[in-house]
Amino acid sequence: MNKPLPVAIGHSACPHDCPSTCALDVEILENRTIGRVRGAAANDYTAGVICAKVARYAERIHHPDRLITPRQRVGAKGEGGWREIAWDDALDLVAEQFVKAEARHGTEAVWPYQYAGTMGLVQRDGIHRLRHAKRYSGQFDSICTNMAWTGWFVGAGAMRGADPRELSKSDCIVIWGTNAVATQVNVMTHAAKARKERGAKIVVIDIYDNATMKQADMALKLRPGTDAAVACALMHIAFRDGTADRDYLARYTDDPAGLEAHLATRTPEWAAAITGLDVADIEAFAALVGRTPRSYFRLGYGFTRQRNGAVAMHAAMSVPAVYGHWRHEGGGAFHSNSDIFGLDKSEIMGAADRDPSIRYLDQSRIGAVLTGDADALAGGPPVAAMLIQNTNPANVCPEQRLVRQGLLRNDLFTCVHEQFMTDTAQIADLVLPATMFLEHDDIYRGGGQNHIVLGPKLVDPPETVRTNHFVIEELAKRLGVADHPGFGLDERTLIDNMLKAAGDTEGFEGLQRERWIDRQPPFEEAHFLNGYAWPDGKFRFKPDWTGGQAPNRPPDSMGPQGPVAGLPEFPDHVTLIETVDDAHPYRLATSPARQFLNSTFAETRGSRSREGAPELLVHPEDALRESLGDGEIVTIGNSRGSVRLPVKVSDTVKPGVLIHEGLWANADFLDGEGINVLTGADPVAPFGGAAFHDNRVWLRTARA
After folding, report:
1. What is the pLDDT of residue 702?
2. φ and ψ at 233, to 5 degrees?
3. 299 by DSSP, 3-state: which?
4. Measured distance CA(18)–CA(25) in Å, rounded
């Protein structure tokens, strides 16, 4: 009988693009093998709970299809021909192609392209060090947070809020526009504690009956892109019924009288007509938060991924200001703590070399950039060479057909540094195998919580797999910039320097011993009871949509984005969304799947088996009108393209609304094209972003 391997427990942090940034306890079976992954019980936000997909991480790190050796394309792009290539030869090739691109078109012809496949500050952001040292094209990171962060910031002036652990001390928890069961499981941990210990009511606002809606005491299912109308009706009722906290409004907000006058016509009946909710449900919701001082609004990203998303966030966060919920522990609102951590990444990113005259390219508009759109190229040269780390644009980016068309250009050299043969890797010229988070040192900060968490190396990677940091350092040597600021330091030194600069005098060793640092501000600061982060200390019901700062404002060379003239003076519903018409009678949202995280985990057996296959949720009324049954194949499309999917008839969606949960690999679809064929890359006002859940489409059957 084989003896069981001895188990050691290592401590780390989840690296994935989720606000929870869970602290982890990892079973180490031997120097290259892990067992079970658990949430750290000692961390008072993670509280011992993690999502099932990360708990099964051994499936991913030990996957038989994991990339192990560098591969160079043989034959035409996308045909699937590869040969193994040695690491030194591969890196020499990248440097050679970058030098050739620079010689033809100048340094801006090289575009290092990255995002959030890992949220570790060293392995994610080191690519900028090479970018700045070589004067390669900059990247405007628009794809994920911009609408949500902008909407919050124009009201509060800072990216912080009520301690997320206060959820457990609330009497009413409003989970707005986020399927927390699938995407932020710890929100539900603390909400369930409040329900059990305090009898708290959980209200969920979303566009379909997802897993979080099914746990709600009050579930409000509205039409996509209409969240601001609900918020306006709540505030109208507060003024109408005398539940508005007028003392708080006078002390902490900019123009409560103007807001009240503006909202006079934003009645529950007005909101019901826009949202599809019943007037009685809106009234009941307002009554609940009106009589519950400890009402906590947990505002997600999903409801902001509309063309009016920044407006929706600002309207939703205005509600607790009208009711004065901010006064109370367990009350107020929270979206992101991204301002609180105090970590300066300048050395990691090589900020000393940054030249503001270098053009920036919009990450979300990669399709337009790579197909030569002059506006997207900011009047500069074509992109002739790319290094792609931590993202899978051929699958996750909008306007997928344009993205693939651009990546398949014969005059574009693309190197992808990846863990699996993703959709992007499959059409690259060179693919380099990347480490996973347990195989390298890094540091993490949790926007959805309050901790800085260390992720030290716990196991050795396969011998032929390399870190992001290694690739950047080696390319710097070959490209003649290894003597520039930030280069020549290992990961631990970069982390140590950053921590000590932030006042943590013991640096890496101290954090390794303590495992995490709690950066949550004091109650008065987190709840803005010392004033909001504007010069006058007032919450802004009347935001300066384009004149002020923002957490991710585009560079001055790009300026405000999208139809800024349509942004409202006060919180309001604005129809900047893609509204239905005779040719496009349905609204489509591309919501996250529980077992995937963006395109990550779509390769693991456990996640795939639990998700099943790509499908389209269709309301029974629409199915009856279209004569559809479960499993029937339909085509949905718009001006950007079309996708075929099997139907699942379900009353979890509203009539006229279609939901596809993903992201599935493109090859999992019937025609080899993914759902982002249908999503648009036009920038959202005022500072850009991709409106993934805001698509009007037609639907056709094979019989049509």
Report:
1. 76
2. -65, -40
3. strand
4. 18
DSSP 576-619: -S----SS--EEEEEEEPTT-BTTBTTTSHHHHHHH-S--EEE-
Last residue of a domain, one of 472, 501, 516: 516
Strand 616-618 relative to strand 451-455, pairing:
unpaired
What angle in degrees, to the nearest 10, is found between the helix axes of 146-156 and 309-323? Answer: 40
Residues 6 or more apart whose CB falls under 8 angstroms from that of 32 comprise 459, 460, 461, 462
Whose structure tokens read 């205005």? 318
Q: What's the helix, strand, coil split of the chain in %, to 5?
A: 35, 20, 45
Residue 536 lies in a domain: no
**Encoding tokens for residue 486?**
């930030």
Instruction: Please spell the DSSP secondary structure of 483-531, one letter per residue.
Output: TSTTTT--HHHHHHHHHHHTT-TTHHHHHHHH-EEE-PPPHHHHTTTT-
- Cβ–Cβ under 8 Å, residues 466 and 476: no
From residue 263, alpha-carbon distances to 220, 232, 283, 396, 564 in Å are 21, 7, 15, 39, 22
Residue 532 φ then ψ, to 5°: -75, 165
* Gap between the Cα atoms of 468 and 700, Å rounded: 45
Rg of the chain in Å (alpha carbons): 25
Domain boundary (463, 489, 516) is at: 516
Report DSSP letters for 28-85, one per residue.
Answer: EEETTEEEEEEE-TTSTTTTT---HHHHTHHHHHT-TT---S-EEE-SSTTS--EEE-
Whether omega for the bond prior to residue 663 falls within 30 degrees of 0, making it cis, is yes
Domain boundaries, position 306: 160-334
**Cα 624 versus chain centre, distance:** 36
Q: Which residues pair with 696 in a beta bridge?
A: 587
* Cβ neighbours, 10 Å, residue 79: 11
458 and 10 Cβ atoms separated by less than 8 Å:
yes
**Do residues 366 and 497 both lie within one domain?**
yes
CA–CA distance, 197 with 327 (Å, rounded to integer): 22
In a domain, 546, yes or no: no
Give pTM, 2 decimals: 0.97
221, two tokens: 């299912």
What is the distance between the terminal CA atoms of the chain, rounded to a whole angstrom? 63
Question: Can you tell me which residue has the tokens 């194949």?
Answer: 633
Nearest to 656 by CA among 576, 577, 574, 579: 579
For residues 482-517, b (16+ Cβ closer than 10 Å) or e, as one string?
eebbbbebebbebbbbbbeebebeebbeebeeebbb
Do residues 98 and 344 touch, judged by C-beta distance below 8 A? no
Residues with Cβ within 8 Å of residue 437, at least 6 apart in sequence? 12, 13, 14, 15, 118, 120, 455
Mean pLDDT of the chain: 97
Backbone phi and psi for residue 516, each to the nearest 5 degrees, phi listed first: -155, 160
Examine residue 574 and state whether it is found in any structural domain, yes or no: no
How many domains in the chain?
4
**Residue partners of 494: CB distance under 8 A and separation at least 6:** 122, 347, 348, 486
Pairing of strands 586-592, 657-662: parallel
Q: Model confidence over 288-347: pLDDT tens digits?
A: 999 999 999 999 999 999 999 999 999 999 999 999 999 999 999 999 999 999 999 999
pLDDT tens digits along 143-171: 999 999 999 999 999 999 999 999 999 99
**Sheet containing strand 8-13, strands side by side:** 8-13, 23-30, 33-39
Write the CATH number for 604.
2.40.40.20
484: phi then psi, degrees, rounded to nearest 5: -80, 160
- Pull the structure tokens for residue 642: 């079309």
- CB-hemisphere CA count at 13 Å for 63? 22
